[in-house]
From TrEMBL:
SUPFAM superfamilies per record: Dimeric alpha+beta barrel
Single GO term (MF): DNA binding
Annotated protein name in UniProt: DNA-binding Lrp family transcriptional regulator
Keywords of this entry: DNA-binding
Stored Gene3D superfamilies: 3.30.70.920
A Pfam family that the UniProt record links to this protein: AsnC_trans_reg
Domain Transcription regulator AsnC/Lrp ligand binding residue range list: 6-76
Ubl conjugation found in the keyword field: no
Length: 93
């Protein structure tokens, strides 16, 4: 599973509509309204690299009101939540 964090800049008065449309795209697991550098942050989870361009370039970037995106590809998750689940399932890392 590949995870990408997509920072999304939008037209200011379209943030809720953009968030709703992005949330409905296949591969987008969640969308957050945030403060700081971006207006929205989308978590994209797909099985293959080719799917990233479909979700981001052909999906998110084409939603009306999206001005620009910046994509961060996750290499590894370091989360207490994920670690607790792995230990609970008896998985080796």
């Amino acid at each position: 599973m590949l995870t990408a964090i997509v920072l999304i800049d939008t037209v200011p008065d379209r943030i809720p509509e953009v968030a709703t449309q992005v949330t409905n795209l296949r591969g987008v697991s969640e969308v957050y309204s945030v403060t700081g550098k971006a207006d929205l942050v989308a978590m994209v989870r797909v099985g293959e690299h080719d799917e990233l361009s479909s979700v981001i370039a052909d999906g998110i970037s084409k939603v009306p009101g999206v001005l620009r995106t910046e994509t961060l590809i996750a290499f590894r998750a370091y989360s207490h939540h994920d670690l607790e689940q792995a230990f609970a399932l008896g998985l080796d890392d």
